[in-house]
Amino acid sequence: MNPGSSRKNIKIGLDVGIVLKNDQKSGKITRGVVKRILTKSSSHPHGIKVQLEDGSVGRVKEIHSSE
Fold first, then answer.
1. Are strands 30-37 and 57-63 parallel, antiparallel or unpaired?
2. Residue 42, class by beta-carbon neighbours within 10 Å (0-12 exposed, 13-18 middle, 19+ buried)?
3. Are 56 and 40 in contact (CB under 8 A)?
4. Where does the record place the region Disordered (predicted)?
5. What would the 3-class secondary structure string for 8-67 be?
6. Contact (Cβ atoms closer than 8 angstroms) between residue 60 and residue 32
7. What structural domains and CATH numbers belong to the chain?
8. What angle do CA 24, 10, 13 make, to 5 degrees?
């Protein structure tokens, strides 16, 4: 299971890679820092939905740091 699919692994300020809605077909990863966690449930099979500091919204596919 992808570590980004469990809400307990995601924290505000974490450096992550997300897939934007428009990039779901290509799987292109956008990297940034988590500003808000948007998924309310404890897990999601496609990744927890977050908003990055630049305003981008997508599902977490990679976690780059654990700060």
1. unpaired
2. exposed
3. no
4. 45-67
5. HHCCCCCEEEEEEHHHCCCCCCEEEEEEEECCCCCECCCCCEEEECCCCEEEEEEECCCC
6. no
7. 3-63 (2.30.30)
8. 100
Comparing C-alpha atoms, which of 42, 52, 59, 51 is closest to residue 7? 42
Q: Which amino acid is at 17?
A: G
The answer to whether the predicted template modeling score (pTM) of the entire model surpasses 0.85 is: yes
Give residue 28's identity as a one-letter amino acid code: K
Q: Tell me the residue type at 8.
A: K
- The one-letter code for the residue type at 9 is N
Q: According to the model, what pLDDT value does residue 2 have?
A: 79
